[in-house]
Amino acid sequence: MTNKRVLHITTSPRAASYSKGLSTAITDRLLSREVIDLTERDLTKSPPPFPDELLTGAFYKDPATLTAQEQSLLRYADAVVADVSQADIIVIGTPMYNLGMPAVLKAWIDQLVRFGVTYDYDENFRRKCRFNGKTIYLAIASGGRLADWPQGTEFIAAPVEAAFNAYVGTTTVRTFRVEGTAMPGFQPDYQQILADF
What we know:
The protein is of the alpha/beta class. The protein is built from seven helices and seven strands. Strands 2-1-3-6-7 form a five-stranded parallel beta sheet, sandwiched between helices. Strands 4-5 form a two-stranded antiparallel sheet. Strand 6 (134-142), helix 6 (157-167) and strand 7 (171-179) form a beta-alpha-beta unit.
């Protein structure tokens, strides 16, 4: 039987990160259930480059026409694509910053989404994605609670799910939240959060 391959992405620079604690609890639970091959990537230790004019141009170029310089610029992006293409399950731990995802997570997604690599178009200009059937577990930490925010201000789970399903492949996304971390005396209970996982 082939081992399931799990990619664990963390995005918080804090040693005592709640998002990292929750995402690690998810990977631990996966490890306890079945044999998996686990790959871990800390985006704060190896941050994605932010797109400039040259890199953006390379993202949208036919891979067969890339110059040597463009291939060099895409080294990080190629590693991200390799990680995601090989993974059956992706676990992403992310804090919420000002109602959104950290810049390193958005930059990681920008490195992943590539014309001719993760998606292309058919003869009717309909988008075709190449990496279908992935499962993502999102572990989101926030100082407040989703129930207290204005309606329509969920800017992490929805964009991640939309980006994967539009430009990577059909993906199931399940979100877990550790909330109220900014409140006095807060103590996380990851096992309770994952009670139905």
